[in-house]
Structures are given as C-alpha cells and as structure tokens.
Design goal:
This protein has 246 residues and is α/β, with parallel strands linked by helices. The relative contact order is 0.14. The model has no long low-confidence stretch (mean pLDDT 92). It is globular.
C-alpha cells in the first residue's frame, strides 16, 4: 500500500493508500506475535519477517498453483514484446507509461500492452506510438495466447513486494522474460529471466534477445526449475512435516 500511495494519480487515492498502509503496518505489528509460525511466499518476505519483525519461526513456502497451470512453453520466435497487467491499477499504468516514454520511444520493436480497464489517459498516450498496440480487457484465453506467442514478456515493476503472479504465468507459458530487480528479488527465479534495471539496459537486452530463438534446452531448464519450486504435492508434504513434525 505504501508503493501504491507513491504511484497513485489522484489525491483521494493517495490518502486512501497512505491510511491503509499505516493501519496495516500497525495491525501486522500487533498480530504477528500471535502466530506460532509464518509461511512466506518469497525468500525476501521470509527475511523481512525474520530480521525486521523478529519472527524467527518464519519459513519459505512457494505458492500453490492451480492444477490447470500446465507448463506449455513453445520453442521458436515471436515478433512482438508484451507488457501485460491490470491497467486499472495506478502502479501498472505508471509502468506502462514509463515503458512508452523511456524504452519504446524511437525504438522499432513492436510492443503490445494488454490488460484490464486501461484509462483514457493511457489510451491517448498509446495512440502516439505507431509500433505500440493496446488490447483492452482480453479474455483469459486471449491473454494466454498473447503470452505464448510473444517473443519477450517484459515485466518490470516499481515495487518489490510479494511475488508477481504475472511473472509466474509468463514463465509457465511464454518465451523470454525480461524483468528488473524489483520484479525478481527474493523469488528464486533469477536464472530464468533476463534482468535489466533501466531503459538503456532494456533496449539493449530486447535487441539482443530478438536475435535469438527460444530453444529446447531453455525450455527444459525452465521446466525443471519451475516444477521443483511450484510442486503442489511436495509443498503439501512439507506442510505436513512442519505441522506434525513428521
């Protein structure tokens, strides 16, 4: 909520996020001692609870994913870069505009921005760019197709909280993924992504990746790591061991 406060466009939203951030921090500090154990979904969260909030019985437990999240990455090449997000969230709109004005300005590669409820402000900005297409409110099936067919899923973030489900979705279904440190920190997925932390680095990384084809060895490497981390059965067995000391 603190990050949302910083990126919100309207004054009323800023006030709301600021108040919620304060209340949640107060609630968390008050309630954290009532838990015998905490199970955090990222390594970074585990470190935060352990070192900052002094809850030493905090363990890392990866997310449980739906059974229909089958690994389905295809080899080969696509012909566009995809940025996908809930565009009704100010932070995501801010990221999309930053990409337009800093990465894709005078940059010849095609970009598709896809997501929920883009604002008229964002739509107006996109019209200026001949190499950028907006797909508003795509169906779940259409979004999966966009992720799968893109050559690059570009997923920078300006907040490093939690784990980004859209990143996991892209890794399960898409080809190359380009992120920044805020997106990837504490996820354990660094080896599956290209990391670029500023506009110049993103342009250089995108240019280099478009010279490559996503091959079988990359697919197998990603599949092995993802299935070792997000293994529902193994992680459920881990919970049983923690709870019952079995």
């Amino acid at each position: 909520y603190s990050h949302l406060f910083q990126s919100a466009n309207s004054f009323s939203k800023k006030i709301y996020y600021l108040i919620e951030s304060f209340l949640l921090k107060k609630y968390e500090q008050k309630s954290i001692g009532k838990a015998d154990e905490l199970w955090a979904v990222t390594i970074k969260d585990k470190e935060t609870y352990t070192h900052q909030l002094k809850h030493y019985q905090t363990k890392f437990l990866p997310l449980f994913l739906p059974d229909d999240w089958a690994f389905s990455v295809e080899e080969g090449k696509g012909n566009y870069v995809l940025y996908q997000a809930d565009l009704s969230v100010d932070a995501n709109e801010h990221t999309a505009i930053w990409l337009l004005k800093n990465v894709f300005i005078n940059f010849n590669f095609s970009l598709i921005i896809a997501g929920k409820n883009p604002s008229p402000h964002l739509q107006k900005i996109i019209l200026v760019y001949k190499n950028v297409q907006l797909i508003a409110n795509p169906s779940e099936e259409k979004m999966k197709q966009l992720i799968k067919e893109a050559h690059i899923n570009l997923l920078p973030s300006f907040s490093n909280t939690g784990i980004k489900l859209k990143l996991i979705n892209a890794l399960f279904n898409g080809r190359f993924c380009v992120v920044n440190n805020a997106t990837i920190e504490g996820t354990g997925l660094n080896n599956l992504c290209y990391i670029a932390n500023n506009a110049e680095a993103m342009q250089e990384t995108i240019t280099n990746i478009f010279k490559q084809s996503f091959n079988i060895s990359e697919i197998e490497k990603r599949k092995d790591l993802l299935q070792s981390i997000f293994n529902n059965e193994n992680n459920a067995q881990q919970i049983v061991q923690w709870v019952f000391n079995d």
